[in-house]
Design brief:
This protein is α/β, with parallel strands linked by helices and about 180 residues long. Helices cover about 35% and strands about 15% of the residues. It has one domain: Glycerol-3-phosphate (1)-acyltransferase (3-Layer(aba) Sandwich), CATH 3.40.1130.10.
């Protein structure tokens, strides 16, 4: 808990191998922030049908991120909401759930949201979520899930351009990998 910033805004990032991941991260945050927590969810999965979209938006408080054709305007709106509304974003920079449970390369979207801002990124690592509810499973299984929370990283002087976004992706991925190794 000591690694979470004292107050929002910030972004919690982690490896992604299960639909339990966002729930595990959200559950670790103090209840007083409940209305500020927004998992960033794949629009093509969680906002494709009215019933699933209602569940994602009203129960999970999720915001959609369209993996295809996500324009700069959409990213700018998410960036403004993060900073101005003092939000907490839960996101998975790999872009999709791992089918094997292994960490994949981080995409630059995280950098697009936070480059050049004072918004800290809190690296996290989830162990056991893949065994509890892998992408091919229909129902979760009772398994122990361990969440490691690293020290926040900030990128206020990182340029808000492609090179800066990739730098943020690489640095953030290294921080999550270090947590996977237990350091």
């Amino acid at each position: 808990m000591e690694n979470f910033p004292a107050q929002p805004p910030f972004a919690c990032i982690a490896n992604h191998s299960s639909h339990l991941d966002a729930l595990a991260l959200a559950a670790s945050l103090p209840a007083r922030w409940r209305d500020s927590i927004f998992p960033i969810a794949a629009g093509d999965t969680f906002f494709n049908t009215p019933a699933v979209a209602a569940f994602a938006a009203f129960i999970l408080n999720a915001l959609p991120m369209w993996r295809r054709n996500c324009g700069s305007h959409s990213m700018q709106m998410l960036r403004e909401r993060l900073v101005e509304d003092k939000s907490i974003y839960i996101l998975f920079p790999e872009g999709t759930r791992s089918r094997e449970g292994k960490l994949a390369a981080f995409k630059p979207g995280l950098g697009m949201l936070i480059a050049g801002t004072s918004v800290p990124v809190v690296p996290c690592y989830l162990q056991g979520a893949h065994q509890a509810f892998a992408p091919h499973q229909k129902f979760p299984r009772p398994r122990k899930i361990i969440l490691r929370i690293g020290k926040p990283i900030s990128f206020p002087s990182t340029k808000n351009d492609r090179a800066g976004w990739m730098e943020i992706a690489t640095t953030s991925q290294s921080a999550v990998e270090a947590l996977a190794l237990g350091s």
